[in-house]
Amino acid sequence: MSKTTPENISLGKSALFMYSIYSLVFAVVVLVFVILPAEYNIDPTGIGKKLGLTVFNEENTEISTSLSSPETAKKLEDSTKTITVIVPAGRGVEYKFTMEQYQKLTYEWTTDGISLYFDLHGEPKGDTTGYFESYAIATAHKMKGSFTTPFAGSHGWYWKNTTDSPITIKLTVKGEYTKHGLK
């Protein structure tokens, strides 16, 4: 039986410098062509729209526009809405509601029996530090309850699917919010 030993690989300073430059260029390309269009709806090249990366932000904009009047917000307060959220295999998604301080949301969500990791949390309006406050963190296939927002901002769930198949969530809400959607 032969024994194998790992080969030592060493890079010179010039090779290490070149790999660092390649990595930096790659990171900038990914930032401009993928991350900015998908996460922030900033698409300086137009490629993000052609690739369908801006679809989530376009939906949020349409919802925001149509729900921006106080009359519409009041109607939402009195009506129950059922939303279907699909969490892709091995990934996580956030679904948020824009709410003012002390507004209330009653909710119930279920999967088809498969448990997901979730974090029900809120992010303050205008905060750029990345701060968020968690209200509930667990792994479950359903949850029912309500919350009153301690501050104005976006509030909702982060669900993470660790399985090899997509999981569909049926989310039913009733309450006070001005817009909602995938974040």
Describe the fold and architecture.
The protein is extended and about 65 Å long. With 183 residues, it is of the alpha+beta class. It has 4 helices and 9 strands. Strand 4 (116-124) and strand 5 (133-140) form a beta hairpin. The strands form 2 sheets. The chain has a 5-stranded antiparallel β-sheet. It has a 4-stranded antiparallel β-sheet with strand order 1-8-3-6.
Which helices and strands appear, and what pairs or packs with what?
Layout: H1 13-40, H2 47-50, H3 55-66, H4 70-78, E1 80-87, E2 92-99, E3 104-110, E4 116-124, E5 133-140, E6 142-148, E7 153-160, E8 167-175, E9 179-182
Antiparallel strand pairs: 1-8, 2-7, 2-9, 3-6, 3-8, 4-5, 4-7
* Portion in strands: 35-45%
The span between the termini is 55 Å
Choose one word for the global shape. extended
String of helices and strands: HHHHEEEEEEEEE
Mean pLDDT score, rounded?
85
How is the largest sheet built, in terms of strand order?
5-4-7-2-9
Which runs of at least 5 residues are low in confidence (pLDDT < 50)?
59-66
**Major sheet:** 5 strands, antiparallel
How many β-strand runs?
A: 9
What would you report as the Rg, rounded to the nearest angstrom? 21 Å
Put simply, the count of helices is: 4
Which secondary-structure class do the elements indicate?
alpha+beta
Instruction: Classify the helix fraction into a percent range.
Output: 25-40%
Offer a quick outline of the entry.
With 183 residues, this protein is α+β, with helices and mostly antiparallel strands. It has four helices and nine strands. β4 (116-124) and β5 form a beta hairpin.
